[in-house]
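hey
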């Protein structure tokens, strides 16, 4: 398993990117880069659960930890994703500490949580490393909750205080829409919300994260975001094709 490096999480900026094409080839290409983590997107992405395992196999050709974003806090989906070999899960639209606690509960084995236990699963190399996986999964599996509403910002301290939550990850587009500034991450209200999330994480000893933009990466690093994502496989394909076409037309 490629778990996230928790020691580095506490002090360094960890680089990630979003993979939403549902393509194992895209995941493999990203895995061969020097990212710290990769986000396989099953919330808004084109991929399906049927394709997830091939993407996770591709992810393990490199050293980056594969995180999977699912659509909601769902125990059966969490179990399938983790059994398939994910290093962690990103839960969207978490607005209360109760929702965050449910996410942790579904992620962790008893007695900490309620995740069902199986031995012969992909995450344990089909049983070969079951004992090691079982002994480490509760401590190593990453719980990432997304902050995407004003209610979540207001509850950020309480959400960050939930035992087992590792990262409060701002979804800036949803948050900007919900703050009446759709797509603008630089308005005073949106920036203030970002800062509140970072401050809550710092008070509770958790890690703040965000999906940034090239022109905002420096500002977001300076705000204190350390679990930092930029770009996506689909965005890279679009920009690459646009560049190639412009070169031909020009």
């Amino acid at each position: 398993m490629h778990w996230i490096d928790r020691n580095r999480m506490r002090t360094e900026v960890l680089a990630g990117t979003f993979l939403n094409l549902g393509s194992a080839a895209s995941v493999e290409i990203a895995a061969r880069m020097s990212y710290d983590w990769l986000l396989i997107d099953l919330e808004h992405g084109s991929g399906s659960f049927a394709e997830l395992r091939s993407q996770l196999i591709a992810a393990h050709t490199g050293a980056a930890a594969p995180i999977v974003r699912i659509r909601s806090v769902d125990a059966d989906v969490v179990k399938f994703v983790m059994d398939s070999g994910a290093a962690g899960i990103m839960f969207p639209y978490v607005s209360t500490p109760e929702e965050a606690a449910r996410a942790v509960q579904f992620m962790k084995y008893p007695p900490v949580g309620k995740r069902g236990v199986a031995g012969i699963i992909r995450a344990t190399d089909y049983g070969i490393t079951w004992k090691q996986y079982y002994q480490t999964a509760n401590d190593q599996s990453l719980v990432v909750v997304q902050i995407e509403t004003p209610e979540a910002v207001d509850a950020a301290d309480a959400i960050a205080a939930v035992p087992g939550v590792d990262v409060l990850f701002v979804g800036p587009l949803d948050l900007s829409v919900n703050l009446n500034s759709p797509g603008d991450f630089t308005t005073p209200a949106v920036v203030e919300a970002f800062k509140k999330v970072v401050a809550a994480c710092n008070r509770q000893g958790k890690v703040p994260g965000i999906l940034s933009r090239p022109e905002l990466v420096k500002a977001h690093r300076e705000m204190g975001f350390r679990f930092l994502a930029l770009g996506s496989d689909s965005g890279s394909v679009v920009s690459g094709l646009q560049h190639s076409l412009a070169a031909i037309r020009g």
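The mean pLDDT is 97. The two ends are 47 Å apart (CA to CA).
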